[in-house]
Amino acid sequence: MPDVKSAANLLFLREEELRQGIELLYYAYRDFTAEPDAMLARYGFGRAHHRVIYFVGRYPQMSVSDLLGILRITKQSLSRVLGQLVRQGFIQQRPGSRDRRQRLLELTEKGIELERQLSENQRQRIAKAYREAGAQAVEGFRKVMLGIIGGEADRRRFERGPTR
Amino acid sequence: MPDVKSAANLLFLREEELRQGIELLYYAYRDFTAEPDAMLARYGFGRAHHRVIYFVGRYPQMSVSDLLGILRITKQSLSRVLGQLVRQGFIQQRPGSRDRRQRLLELTEKGIELERQLSENQRQRIAKAYREAGAQAVEGFRKVMLGIIGGEADRRRFERGPTR
DNA sequence: GAAAATAAGTCAATATGCCTGACGTAAAAT
DNA sequence: ATTTTACGTCAGGCATATTGACTTATTTTC
């Protein structure tokens, strides 16, 4: 019964393909974070500090609640990490001009330097992967990753054009 | 001076492209783990339990040290998580026949069921992304992800052919 | 203008994940 | 017979994150 056999085989291939997708994400993320984590440890920081520094560098003058929205953590969790970064002079806060309740966040010179160091490794890893895979593969990578990302709002961050 | 300007523009595009790569990984991984995390919380488990259940399901009869090698954590960290799963009947251990020092790991029926529930969400997310992006994009996704993964040994897990 | 909502911060208690270091046991390799 | 390996465990510690309760300043809404 070749029909049954090939149907089963298709299902099997599909199952295997999906598992490989899960694992590609797992291994890639694991390796992607390993080196920055090691660097952060030398400052007494953790991965949470990296995420804060990264996104504040990416979106200067962002508010605390925007940052909370991206990180999807509670303000109590953010508080300690952000407080450390502010007290140690990596991040600067200033009241918003339109809404003075807001504390707009910005990297200091020192913060910019740390961000650069931390992300350099990741940029090079991506650059290497992109270079080896080629432009067409990069396009496919983008498409699949955008499909994995859940929210419409987050997907919009990746619209075409250099500066979002 | 058009040369300088276009060179700077190229650098800018490249920088933006690399940053987007970093962020695609961040958002995709964040959303990829959010729902399983919520399910695990209902069992009193964390992401670590999911990883253990996933890989034991993927490679039945694997040894503890093989699992440690994949997870890249210490045996002390694994110990509590694995111990809970064994005591609560999700994972079964048996001495290896060739090397009786080994404890080979295997999911129980209960473990298989939990694994299926947890990964179903991730499989569907991948399936949706693959379906929407198309076969060629999936090929590109694989290429780029493999380029991001550091170790040759880990990349070998993704060689062609259904069963590794 | 008073009441309600929002942005941000704080105190407290708790859980989980992960680490280093030290030590123990059984089995295999040399 | 000694050393190495596979696994486990005790102890102590730090980072990340949670829920819940409460405060302050400012803006919005009625």
Description:
The structure is a homodimer of 164-residue chains. With 164 residues, the first copy, chain A, is mostly helical. Chain A has a single domain (2-133), classed as Arc Repressor Mutant, subunit A, CATH 1.10.10. The first copy, chain A, is 73% helix and 6% strand. The first copy, chain A, is built from 7 helices and 2 strands; from the N terminus they run ααααββααα. Chain A has helices at 2-43, 47-58, 64-71, 75-87, 109-133, 135-148, 152-156; strands spanning 91-95, 103-107. In chain A, strands 1-2 form a two-stranded antiparallel sheet. In chain A, a hairpin with a 7-residue loop joins strand 1 (91-95) and strand 2. In chain A, helix 1 packs antiparallel against helix 5, helix 2 (47-58) packs across helix 4 (75-87) and helix 2 (47-58) packs across helix 5. The mean pLDDT of chain A is 87. Chains A and B meet through helix 1, helix 2, helix 5 and helix 6 of A and helix 1, helix 2, helix 5 and helix 6 of B. The structure holds a DNA duplex (30 and 30 nucleotides).
Helix content of chain A: over 70%
Q: Termini separation of chain A (Å)?
A: 54 Å
Oligomeric status: homodimer
Output the strand order for the largest sheet of chain A.
1-2
Name of the top-level CATH class of chain A: Mainly Alpha
Main beta-sheet strand count, sense and barrel state of chain A: 2 strands, antiparallel
The number of domains of chain A is 1
